[in-house]
Amino acid sequence: MITTSSSAGIPATLLVIAKAPIAGFAKTRLTPDFSPREAAQLAAAALLDTLRAVRHSGVRHRVVAWTGDLTRAERSDELSTALAEFELIPQRGETFGQRLANAHADAARAGLPVLQIGMDTPQAGPALLAVSATLLLECGDTVLGPAADGGWWALGLTDPRPARTLAEVPMSTAHTGDLTREALSRCGCRVRRLPVLTDVDTADDALTVAREHHGHFSRAVEQLRHHAPA
């Protein structure tokens, strides 16, 4: 994959944590409301929206930390084309927290502050990502975007070393956001708050986000709802 760095744009790295949208591998909490394949189709749509938002954010360097077999993914051809515009690095680590910490360390090798997001917030458009990256640069420290379910959707660091603490934070709980903020504060970070977003974990989340967002994801939700049995 190409390395997308230039002298133009916001001097930061936008890091996307992503997994191949394969049935039974991605977005498993969307079942049984959606079938495993439908859940993977929604994951693919959300990722396509996210990659597009990153490409149009004006952030200088774009990285995807990837896991899974792209050839088996839903919408694999579209994703392959989109990912060609990113630096692709493998996820490393046993737990999700370890993979997050390692991805921050790997992305920081470009020498720029890192704003990390996932593939669960397709409504996070280019303007929000640009504002979030700019706030990270202005505060010169740390930004954290809370999720409505108590987690978080974005983490920006000017120094990658505090990311190591993510390996010790319980993930996917109603207190993950607060625990992450506390852990970062213990590392000496002054954490600035980004807007609260709903991340797509459940079927209700998917419907909520589809109502407030227009893109691949909202169209995929509408199509699946249209074809759902009465």
Automatic annotation (TrEMBL):
Lineage: Bacteria, Bacillati, Actinomycetota, Actinomycetes, Mycobacteriales
Name of the protein: 2-phospho-L-lactate guanylyltransferase
Gene name linked to the record: cofC_2
EC number: 2.7.7.68
GO molecular function, one term: phospholactate guanylyltransferase activity
Claim: Ligase is one of the keywords in the record: no
Pfam families, sorted: DUF2064 (PF09837)
Enzyme class per UniProt: transferase
Keywords in alphabetical order: Nucleotidyltransferase, Transferase
SUPFAM superfamilies associated with the record: Nucleotide-diphospho-sugar transferases (SSF53448)
